[in-house]
Write the structure tokens for this entry.
Amino acid sequence: MSLSDVAIRRPVFTSMMALGIIVLGIMGLNRLGTDLYPDVTFPVVMVTTVYKGAGPGEIETQVTKPLEDSIAGISGIDKMHSWSRENASTIAVQFKLTESLDRAVQEVRDKVAQASRCSRRTPICPRSAEWTSAPRRSSPTR
């Protein structure tokens, strides 16, 4: 006698077995210790630069673009977004989950310090800009 013969000849038995499996599955799901939304935080580093008296266009060409070019050379960057507005520039650098936040912060600080030094190659570097160090921050994904 095969399983299909039992299912056809005894429909009440088959229905009760299916219902029992469903009830046990629901009980097991409630007791299961998994987290449907685990706490995943992406390493994000924010860089803010204040350049008083400058418009958004000047901020973008003299501050944001050189900083972006400098920071873009860091390995492990997942995304980079920047905002240039009157008197200020903000750059958000998101690293891959495998990257260490402490290492990422240090590398961004080094690149910001390197970009803030005016050299003969970058004569457009504004000397009156307040170059800030990069604070570290983790961004939750919930």
